[in-house]
Specification:
Elements (H helix, E strand, L loop, with lengths): L6 H4 L1 H8 L3 E19 L2 E15 L4 E7 L6 H15 L6 H11 L7 H22 L3 H4 L7 E6 L5 H14 L3 E5 L5 H15 L4 E5 L6 H11 L6 E3 L7 H10 L4 E3 L6 H9 L5 E2 L8 H15 L3 E3 L3 H9 L4 E6 L12 E3 L2 E3 L12 H6 L3
Parallel strand pairs: 4-5, 4-11, 5-6, 6-7, 7-8, 8-9, 10-11
Antiparallel strand pairs: 1-2, 2-3, 4-13, 12-13
């Protein structure tokens, strides 16, 4: 079994405090996080970031915290209801993340574990792992058997225009990021190239530039644009076509020299298996929430190691940082400031890398005053 899965056995001793805990409640709160600058993508614009905060309490007083990103404000209420309903089902059970994940997967077999249900499942899994790490009084990465280590980080830009993206890229580099990702997908490939060239002039040759099409191209158009981007020295082209078109992405990857990256839209480990089996991309970037939480991530990391595929994290940086530390083929951490405005302490950057916090669990501490002001 690959190294990422060895954590099941390696952490048996440190998991012992969690095995004695009993789940009391799982609470969820809908929060619409206001952001200073709208985030523009080829698929739409985010004026705010709708998230669900999840808090787990145990009978013994140990708690867990995590969050999931709802994408759309109208998805907040159903996600809150799903998370809390799952918490009701788990009341009185021992806090054993692997056993609970297996139990919930069986319960959801007929309903299905994708879409909003899958997002809620991922959130519940993550909050249990956070509580387990807090019970052991160690960062989650350490509970998973990893040595704390910095992870190279890039900042995701919120502007798609050449001038705006270049300005944002300069600010990201000044903040300490070793790379930047820009959303492209203009009406022509010339518009895409203009954005990339403007960023390169601003940040210089040493900063990595990733580009993200957010699934807006057909396969032939993605190949045509990709071949032009081969001359732009970008680190990867992300989701050029529909996320679930694994064969289409594989065709693009075969015909474009620049690495293709997919994975943020995978709904569970089976999607990861199918994608890697058909060589849909050169790099992968699962989303911790959608892939099945910590448990799903560890299984995907084992697959990535077996296939020799570099693995980056999608969004949710406070969570992905710990998981990447326990990932044998860890590549990049994406920093999208989804919940920075409601945290007591944002992530720390040093020499182009994100630094693992020293506190237990994921290290999340809500700024309750800010949370109260943004409740949805």
């Amino acid at each position: 079994m690959a190294k990422a899965m060895q954590s099941d056995a390696a952490t048996t001793g440190s998991m012992a405090p969690a095995l004695r805990l009993t789940i009391r409640t799982v609470r969820a709160r809908a929060v619409d996080v206001r952001i200073k600058q709208p985030a523009v993508t080829a698929a739409g614009t985010f004026a705010s970031f709708p998230v669900v905060l999840i808090d787990l309490d145990t009978e013994e007083g140990v708690f867990g915290r995590t969050y999931i990103f709802a994408y759309e404000r109208f998805a907040l209420k159903p996600l809150v209801l799903l998370v809390e309903a799952m918490g009701d089902v788990l009341r009185g059970q021992r806090l054993h993340p692997l056993a609970v994940e297996s139990f919930l997967q069986r319960r959801m077999r007929l309903l299905g574990g994708q879409g909003l249900v899958g997002m809620a499942l991922g959130g519940v899994d993550m909050v249990m792992w956070d509580a387990a790490a807090r019970a052991a009084d160690v960062p989650l990465a350490v509970l998973l058997g990893a040595a704390p280590r910095p992870i190279p980080a890039y900042g995701t830009l919120k502007n798609m225009t050449a001038d705006g993206a270049a300005r944002d890229a300069g600010a990201a580099v000044a903040r300490g990021f070793a790379g930047v990702k820009v959303k492209i997908g203009g009406s022509t490939i010339d518009a895409d190239v203009a954005v990339i060239e403007a960023i390169r002039r601003e940040v210089g040759p040493r900063i990595a530039i990733m580009v993200d099409y957010n699934q807006v191209l057909s396969v032939p158009e993605a190949i045509a644009r990709g071949r032009v981007l081969d001359g732009q020295q970008v680190t990867w082209i992300e989701e050029p076509t529909l996320a679930r078109d694994f064969e289409g992405h594989a065709e693009i990857a075969r015909n474009v020299a620049t690495p293709i990256s997919v994975g943020e839209s995978w709904e569970g480990v089976p999607d990861a298996m199918r994608s890697m089996a058909c060589r849909a991309s050169d790099f992968i970037m699962p989303d911790a929430m959608r892939i099945g939480g910590v448990t799903g991530w560890l299984r995907t990391a084992a697959l990535a190691e077996a296939h020799g595929v570099p693995l980056s994290g999608h969004a949710l940086p406070e969570l992905s940082l710990h998981l990447l530390a326990a990932t044998p083929t860890a590549h990049w951490l994406e920093y999208a400031d989804i919940v920075e405005a409601i945290l007591q302490q944002p992530l720390t950057l040093r020499d182009g890398c994100a630094v693992l916090p020293e506190g237990p669990g994921f290290g999340l501490e809500w700024d309750e005053k800010a949370v109260s002001a943004m409740l949805a």
